[in-house]
Design goal:
Layout (H helix, E strand, L loop, with lengths): L1 E6 L4 H11 L5 E7 L4 H11 L3 E4 L2 H11 L6 E4 H10 L5 E4 L7 H9 L3 E4 L2 H18 L2 E4 L2 H11 L7 E8 L9 H4 L4 H4 L9 H9 L1 H14 L6 E5 L5 E7 L4 E5 L5 H9 L31 H11 L1 H19 L7 H12 L8 H21 L1
Parallel strand pairs: 1-2, 1-5, 2-3, 3-4, 5-6, 6-7, 8-9
Antiparallel strand pairs: 8-10, 10-11
Bound molecules: NADPH dihydro-nicotinamide-adenine-dinucleotide phosphate and magnesium ion (MG).
Length: 386
């Protein structure tokens, strides 16, 4: 029986993980769940799955949760960063689902690595900020990272059955292209928050949905792939595939191109990661290929969506620059969601941040977090000055 802590159980990945766990009561039990703002959903999840520990944002929400569930059962209720960190490293937990969105997930994910856990990694921003530190710590502390991001999960599945890294010519990450794939630059400057949140294929949290619309999501994924698979970034390409049926390819030196196909539903990669190295049911049917006869592919439009190239550029500039990229992006996306800046200003701000500042290379997580908070403040001041 595996005992699971879910960091971010109230989010899209967290809920989908519980949907898969629900299918396998003989294989998994939930040790801990966590929310940030959604205490009602956390209570509903806790009453169903009876975790020993639950974590929420602050003391007020912890008290509220206690009041709501005390007549059902009495778990330990923790709050704040120390609580998230506790469930990531507790001895009782074997598997940690890293599904907090953004940089807030970095420290708990790192804790899980340092404690040698099996980590189901959704939180790509942690990897973009501190990929090399995370990968080094995985080997040092014998932790196992299984990617949940659908593209990386696909590549992991392919590489796992064709293990020689030297035989890989390139990795091709597929991208839906988001809701604005066929827009002109003029049309893009007027898009609304609701339009940007209306992803054609995937139902996800707000931040990653905006990242998909700007193509920054693919940029973050290119960096994530370079670290996870130890592949030079020049060997990672992006291909627009609007139907989101093929979840990336690996091209081998003999000319073979291998891919993984599935309906766009995160329960598939989540169940692979949960079951690894075994396969378990996800609740999703296999593709009906006779209905999938319109699979198309195209190159990304880098003029319309500059974020993808900014990510390549930041990676080649070094780790301090990927922290800037991520911090400036998180601040810019938040400002767009709050209707403070237009959509097309997201890449402009990130570009200014990347060109303006050059902090020293971080050598540990404390350095990473210090650069992250400095860059957030600086990006906010760029927004205030405009
Ligand atoms: P959501 O916004 O749906 O969920 C985020 C989760 O993190 C929620 O449980 C939220 O709590 C919690 N959270 C938010 N901020 C904090 C914080 N400061 N401290 C602690 N917890 C916090 O995001 P997704 O599930 O869509 O994405 C999660 C991660 O997975 C992201 O890094 C994303 O890039 C990645 N990912 C997601 C995919 C998807 O299909 N959704 C696909 C591939 C990767 P609450 O809701 O209670 O406020
Ligand atoms: Mg993805």
């Amino acid at each position: 029986m595996r005992a699971i802590s879910i960091l971010g159980s109230t989010g899209s990945i967290g809920c989908n993980t519980l949907n898969v766990v629900r299918l396998h009561p003989d294989k998994f039990n939930i040790f801990a769940l966590s929310s940030y703002t959604n205490t009602d959903l956390l209570c509903t999840q806790a009453i169903e799955f009876r975790p020993s520990v639950i974590v929420t944002k602050d003391a007020i929400s912890a008290k509220k949760i206690h009041g709501l569930i005390k007549n059902t059962y009495t778990p330990e209720i923790l709050h704040g960063l120390s609580g998230y960190r506790f469930i990531a490293r507790a001895n009782e937990a074997t598997d940690i689902v890293a599904a907090i969105s953004g940089s807030a997930g970095l420290l708990p994910t790192m804790d899980a690595i340092i404690h040698g856990k099996k980590i189901l990694l959704a939180n790509k921003e942690a990897m973009v900020m501190a990929g090399s530190l995370m990968i080094d710590s995985c080997s040092k502390f014998n932790a196992k990272l299984i990617p949940v991001d659908s593209e990386h999960n696909a590549i992991f599945q392919i590489i796992h059955s064709n293990s020689d890294n030297n035989a890989i010519n390139k990795i091709i990450l597929t991208a839906s292209g988001g809701p604005f794939r066929d827009f002109t630059i003029d049309q893009l400057s007027d898009v609304t928050v609701d339009e940007a949140l209306n992803h054609p294929n995937w139902v996800m949290g707000k931040k990653i949905t905006i990242d998909s619309a700007t193509m920054m999501n693919k940029g973050l994924e290119v960096i994530e792939a370079a670290y996870l698979f130890d592949i030079p970034i020049e060997k990672i390409d992006v291909l627009i595939h609007p139907q989101s049926i093929i979840h990336s390819f690996v091209e081998f030196l003999d000319g073979s191109l291998i891919s993984q196909l599935g309906y766009p539903d995160m329960k598939i990669p989540i169940s692979y990661a949960l079951g690894f190295p075994d396969r378990i049911k996800s609740g999703i049917e296999g593709i009906k290929l006779e209905e999938a006869n319109d699979l198309t592919f195209d190159s990304p439009d880098n003029d319309l969506f500059p974020c993808l190239n900014l990510a390549y550029q930041a990676f080649s500039m070094g780790m301090a620059s990927t922290i800037i990229l991520n911090a400036a992006n998180e601040v810019a996306v938040d400002a767009f969601l709050k209707k403070i800046i237009p959509f097309t200003e997201i890449p402009t701000l990130i570009n200014s941040a990347l060109q303006s500042w050059a902090p020293n290379k971080p050598s540990n997580i404390e350095d990473v977090l210090a650069i992250d908070s400095e860059m957030r403040i600086k990006t906010m001041s760029l927004i205030a000055k405009r």
